[in-house]
Predict the 3D structure of the following.
Amino acid sequence: LVVATLFSFVAMTASAKDYTDTDKVSYAEAVDVLSAIGILEGYPDGSFRPTNTIKRSEMAKMVAVLANAGDDIEDLYASACKFADMNGNAVWAKSYVAYCNQMGIVSGRNATTFDPEGKVTGIETAKMLLCLIGFDAKAQNYIGTNWKTYVLSDAKNLGLLDGFAADYDPDKAITREEAAQMMLNALQA
């Protein structure tokens, strides 16, 4: 349903070939698709910066916009945010974080701390995307001490890691282009 909805309104406005650093983009198709549907954006200087890592607040926005078929929910959930550290430079992401938390897509580092400036890893991204496409974190054992094992198994089985090198390390901070590839894989899962 998410895929059908997203692709029904695609207006090809940006693609990897439009970015000034397109020659550095390894996952061009994923960047093209996610840029076209408004999930990823370039920087004001026209670059994409494919190897930049992503903050937890930025990933929450990307996942929330993806979950809402491209609609921006910037102001809809801000008052529901329960994390005390969603202030200052992170206040812009309050609504996205609250939405993802309420939908069971993302949790905080603890009950009152989200860590919006923290880097999101590949395995955390996979967990968010699995929850986005319908997996229940509690029922799938995505919480607790062995959560990574279950997330990695389901991510591999559904193809979320397709297209990644054999030595890809999901415990490292995910890059912008890796996030695009994983999101495209989730859309196709």
Notes: The helical segments are 2-8, 28-36, 56-67, 94-102, 122-132, 147-158, 176-188. Residues 176-188 form the longest helix (13 residues). The two ends are 11 Å apart (CA to CA). DSSP finds seven helices and no strands in the chain.
